[in-house]
Amino acid sequence: MIDTLLLNGRVIDGTGSPAVVADVGIAEGRIVAVGDLAEAEAPNRIDVTGLTVTPGFIDIHTHSDAVLLADGKADSQVMQGVTTELAGQCGYSFAPVGDARRMERWMVGRLPGVEVTWQSFGGYLDALESKALGLNVMGLVGHGAIRGAVLGDEVRPPTEDDLDRMADLVAESLDEGAWGLSTGLEYWPGLGATASELTRLCRVVAERDGFHASHVRNRDIHYDLGFTEVLSVGRVAGVRTQISHIQPKYGRPDHAMTHALEMIDQARAVGLDVAFDVIPHEWSHTGVAAILPAWAREGGVERLLERLRDPEARRRMKANPAPMWRLVLDGRWDLIHFLRANDPEILGRTVADVAAERGTAPYDTVLDLLLEAGENALHMLWTSKSFFEEDLRLCLVRPDCGVMSDTLALSRRGPTGSLIGSLAGYGWAARFLEHYVRNLELMSLEEAIRRVTSFPAERIGIADRGVLRPGAAADIAVFDYDKVTYSGTLEDPRQHPRGFVHVLVNGRFAMQDGQRTDQDAGEVLRSPAS
């Protein structure tokens, strides 16, 4: 018997096929029929005439590993049609664990009260599974976590024994449910990795049919070196490769995006399975501490704070010739805005403005704020308009380009309410549909839906989500396409978009008639290798 019928909707199945007017029947968390079901019996009949019905969106790149343990409702994602996300990106995952206290200080988005009680990746997934989740969650194992579990905060190359242990941890993590490996080669400790180290680990991933998602080493003046490294690792290791948020940054030459796409085409021509994704806006966000040289982070947060108190060490930090953002080298503090800090009064303001108020030089202001943050220094976040609209458009017209958030799954009404993951965290999918699809018409709506449903599902390797067809999980988004509107601003990014009407997760209404329900039907999805 059918539990729920969605009647008379404009159905887009996620494959890129043309929309059709049809009904969707749901039973026991699965889609059981798509077509003319007007005569079918169902206790819950919902008329969606004039609305678009699609698979729930799959966010292929998030950093929600820690926040979901504090609050799993994930309203910021659910209320824009997202029903599944892949966390553990840019080398950051909440497992495996060497030193629990170190992991708690290091992990992106961790809130007080979230304590590490596990060591293995499987143990982390067990902890996540014990929470009520508003959406489905998958995870990659992060290279940074792997390295940290073996080397701690030492700044040195791994020995052969270290590499053996790292490879074993990758294998164990994939066998326990991770869908692949992520790397963050602009971040500590990923910036210390060599191509041979990455290849060694990616071979383990390839053996288990996982994939490698990489935040590459450089996307400004040496953009080609960063992309070449990851493409080379993929080719040699034979691993499915996903280049995360491919957009080159401030400081890149004008030809960088075109050249990077040509490099991908050449790699694909010699057999590499490679694709990429973008954040659908020009704002780039990262941790404030990412501008520091690697030696400043050696030994953990305590040693970093000691160095921040040392005038000579601070002088050396400011002399770093290769901070993550070239905006810093160029002194463009007027273009950098704080997103997360101990002092809520500085949020949304530029570094230049805060420095002027304090009467200190901008770089010193930043180092002072890191010092004042204490153990939370690694959790400070800022943003800048470092990406380029013309680069985004070049990417989005290609069928091998996915769209994602690079953010945290949050809820305004719970313990994560004060957090900001990114400027578009509450509306990235809406901005993609409104700006790039409806307004600029870079692709059809059917193709746009494919980019956030079956495309990420295929890249990850999950077979029963991202499509509307009998047998698939009943993860469904229903929206008024003409009314979908991104609502966030720099001053107030925590605004849900307009236009989304219903969202179902595993057949249950997480959002109904434009309102978040109390249903949290999400599941932890473990890889087939587990």
Give your account of this protein's structure.
32% of the residues lie in helices and 18% in strands. The protein has 530 residues and is α/β, with parallel strands linked by helices. The chain has three domains: 4-55 and 467-486 and 495-516, Urease, subunit C, domain 1 (Roll); 57-283 and 387-460, TIM Barrel, CATH 3.20.20.140; 291-384, no CATH class. Strands 1, 2, 3, 4, 5, 18, 19, 20 and 21 form a nine-stranded mixed sheet that branches. Strands 9-10-11-12-13-17 form a six-stranded parallel sheet, sandwiched between helices. A three-stranded parallel sheet has the order 6-7-8, covered by helices on one side. β12 (240-243), α9 and β13 form a beta-alpha-beta unit. α6 runs parallel beside α7 (195-207) and α7 (195-207) crosses α8 (223-237). The longest helix is centred in the first third of the chain and has 16 residues, at 160-175. It is globular. The model has no long low-confidence stretch (mean pLDDT 96).
Radius of gyration: 22 Å
Mean pLDDT: 96
- Tally of alpha and pi helices: 19
Structural class: alpha/beta
Tell me about the biggest sheet? 9 strands, mixed
Tally of distinct domains? 3
The CATH class name of the largest domain reads: Alpha Beta
The strand count comes to 21
Question: What's the CATH H-level superfamily name of the largest domain?
Answer: Metal-dependent hydrolases
